[in-house]
Write a structure and sequence with these properties.
The chain contains 2 helices and 19 strands. 24% of the residues lie in helices and 34% in strands. By secondary structure, the chain is α+β, with helices and mostly antiparallel strands. The strands form 7 sheets. Strands 5, 6, 9, 10, 14 and 17 form a 6-stranded antiparallel β-sheet that branches. It has a 3-stranded antiparallel β-sheet with strand order 11-12-13, with no helix packed on it. It has a two-stranded antiparallel sheet with strand order 1-2. The chain starts with a helix and ends with a helix. Helix 1 packs antiparallel against helix 2. It folds into 2 domains: 109 residues, no CATH class; 131 residues, no CATH class.
Length: 254
């Protein structure tokens, strides 16, 4: 196969992967705490011919390499909900939650209380405190969450007093790019080590929205689609040229 078709095919493969990434971003434009993904491409130069005895030397061909994707951990906009169980994170921290697969991390602070009185995510995963799950009593009221993540409630009927129900387990990572998305707005640590985060702050009554810019992503989608079609047209032209050349060479003079 000619180099033109090989290079074009490598470009189409990278564009197909980029379309998948953009489509996933667009699908999560309204997902609380979602962080967009970006694609990384680079030029890949193939080695020269093994029998490098051409005059001049065989030229190296540049291919498109779909190197990786990375997470954009930029802060999303904050929306006021007024719910005492909703929180947003001001900083680079994550809230730890317990899942059937083990401890995971999220930026989605839309919480609720399950039938056992446990603080859980919208997906039903248990929100972890520094000393384990955070559990409320049926008579708890006036839930307050401090900037450090400490959760207090009002107790008592005749004599009212405040009780602490726990403190949200906030963690950070030296290299958050090592985190792996697992769906349901959760991240797995993998090779990254979670550390206690004492710098991020909690805002009660707010949730962080997705940091995906819908207009930008749709514009990128159209640009990638046009590029894909242009490459397909180039490949068709090259195929037609080869077909015509073979036909002309096969013609035997009468």
């Amino acid at each position: 196969m000619e180099n033109t078709l090989l290079v074009a095919l490598s470009r189409q493969m990278s564009l197909e992967r980029q379309i998948d990434v953009i489509a996933n971003n667009v699908a999560n434009v309204n997902t609380n705490g979602f962080k967009a993904d970006k694609s990384v491409f680079e030029e890949y130069l193939n080695t020269g011919a093994r029998e490098d005895n051409f005059t001049p030397s065989d030229r190296r061909v540049s291919f498109v390499l779909d190197r990786a994707t990375y997470h954009d951990f930029g802060q999303g906009s904050v929306e006021k909900t007024g719910s005492p169980l909703d929180v947003s994170i001001d900083g680079k921290g994550f809230i730890a939650v317990q899942t059937p697969q083990g401890e995971r991390y999220t930026r989605d602070g839309s919480f609720q209380i399950n039938g056992q009185g446990q603080l859980v995510t919208s997906g039903g995963n248990i929100v972890l405190g520094t000393n384990g799950p955070i559990v409320f009593q049926p008579t708890d009221r006036d839930i307050k969450i401090s900037a450090e993540g400490t959760i207090t409630v009002g107790e008592g009927i005749v004599t009212q007093f405040d009780s602490i129900r726990g403190r949200l387990k906030l963690v950070k990572f030296d290299n958050p790019q090592r985190l792996t998305k697992e769906g349901a707005n959760l991240y797995a640590a993998g090779s990254a080590a979670a550390q206690a985060d004492t710098t991020s702050r909690i805002n009660q009554g707010f949730v962080e929205k997705s940091n995906v810019n819908a207009v930008t992503e749709m514009t990128r989608m159209m640009e990638v689609m046009r590029t894909y079609q242009s490459v397909a047209s180039l490949m068709q032209q090259q195929s037609d040229l080869r077909k015509n050349a073979i036909q002309m060479l096969a013609e035997v003079p009468a």
